[in-house]
Prior knowledge:
Layout: H1 2-12, E1 18-19, E2 23-24, E3 37-42, E4 56-57, E5 60-67, E6 80-84, E7 98-101, E8 110-117, E9 120-125, E10 135-140, E11 154-160, E12 169-170, E13 173-180, E14 186-193, E15 199-200, E16 205-207, E17 211-221, E18 230-237, E19 248-254, E20 263-264, E21 267-274, E22 280-287, E23 293-294, E24 299-301, E25 305-315, E26 324-331, E27 342-348, E28 357-358, E29 361-368, E30 374-381, E31 387-388, E32 393-395, E33 399-409, E34 418-425, E35 440-443, E36 446-451, H2 461-465, H3 474-490, H4 496-509
Parallel strand pairs: 3-5, 4-10, 12-18, 18-36, 20-26, 28-34
Antiparallel strand pairs: 1-2, 5-8, 6-7, 6-9, 9-10, 11-13, 13-16, 14-15, 14-17, 17-18, 19-21, 21-24, 22-23, 22-25, 25-26, 27-29, 29-32, 30-31, 30-33, 33-34, 35-36
Helix pairs in contact: 3-4
InterPro entries: BlueCu_1, BlueCu_1_BS, Cupredoxin, Ig-like_fold, Ig-like_OmpL47-like
Keywords: Copper, Electron transport, Metal-binding, Signal, Transport
GO molecular function: copper ion binding; electron transfer activity
Amino acid sequence: MIGLCAALFSLWLAPAGASPGTGDAVSTSAQRPAQQQVLTWTADDRMDEYASAPATAKPGPATIVFENSENTGNTSGMSHTLTFDTSSPEYNNDVQLNIVASPFDANGGRYEVEVTLSPGKYRYYCAIPGHGEMQGVLVVTEDGGGEEDTTPPEVTAEVTGDQDEEGNYIGSATVKISAQDSGSGVDTVEYDLDEAGFEPYTEPLTINEPGDHTVHYRATDNAGNTSETGSVTFTVVEGDTEDTTPPEVTAEVTGDQDEEGNYIGSATVKISAQDSGSGVDTVEYDLDEAGFEPYTEPLTINEPGDHTVHYRATDNAGNTSETGSVTFTVVEGDTEDTTPPEVTVQLTGSQDAQWNYVDSATVALSAHDPDSGVHFLRYSLDGGSYTAYGEPIVVNEPGEHTVLYHAVDHAGNRSEDGKVTFTVVVAEGDACPASDIRDTLVIKGHDSTVANVDTGNGCTLNDLIDEHAEYPNQGAFLAHVTKVTNDLVADGVISDSEQRRILRAAENSGVGE
């Protein structure tokens, strides 16, 4: 990993940053005017978001601080940038900023730059290939906005691991908690495992003790607003102690490619392992024969040349898979690229005789740029703000809808806005129009981890729970959930263990209190 990080650092070493008319300038706290606002961004080991970022600011002089160090959670030595977008007409283009920071650089990963901000919006992002999801918008208004932040952070949790047919996690389960705050920024994230008391959350939790478990979680922003407590409920079971079958391991390489199949600018390698016996214990990779290291997240390789990634996995019974490998070539992008990316859209779903989409429509976008490579792809649904595209957009609200979309390549070329318009209608006999189609059954922020399946008449499990109805007390709500889940167990829709997880989520939700 250190070799890869050193390569990233050498490839992206650049002046720390600049504001118009000042040249490359790195300031210290002593140089800062006493009342000047300070805006701080931090980065850690993630490639999908900054660890923290401001959402609002006041116009005028400002000190921008960007830190990517061990103090901010970067334990791998990975380089990140803080770059302001000056190519999009919907954002301010008057601040030229491109700070490259690494825990290994001369500043220890911490930089300060003096800039002057104008009213409007500034888009920022990480310019290192493969880190394109690290982006956001800074809103500059006369009142600064953030001083009156009264909205708590949004917090979610994801449970992963090998599962049996009933949804139990084999050997262990991993819980990853994520928090976002568009106002003053996230200050702290906390978790409580099985009512042992809240503790600071710093990294994904791995729970390998057999039994039922509940993780509660919450976050507080820099204005002191604390989110409601959410929870995830799941069951861990022992793996097959007589398991003699090693895990199945696969690797996928993605990125923009030229006509010869070379990856332009960078390639990303994602490794996946499954084990239906005792469950996966460890996954490892070896990049260019540098030695095996633990695999924790997709690898981004942007050093030009031929590369080989070997990979293997070991289960909880000690069985290790055969070593697999993927080989690919990374080439430099075209520095004189003047051609914007090509964006295509695919609209799918069941249609009636008038070509309306019944119950829902799915919009899938893809972008291709054979020169410098696609930097990011964005969309806007029904006049809303542009959002980074990550997965197909499912629209199930009845009515007419419009999706706008565009892409920007690494050379800054932006495609023209594309547009697709369609209409969603409710199916005849559909008992639940605009159904809740989240992946799992969630009751007021408490995730049961039970798959949110369609029960056969257009209603999902989330629809049947009906958490938004009026209940005189929590006992009435729990009685309702018990009756619904008893019927679902009797019909074979859910198992007994899934019913227990749903009831526990209902108890934690506080609905009816």
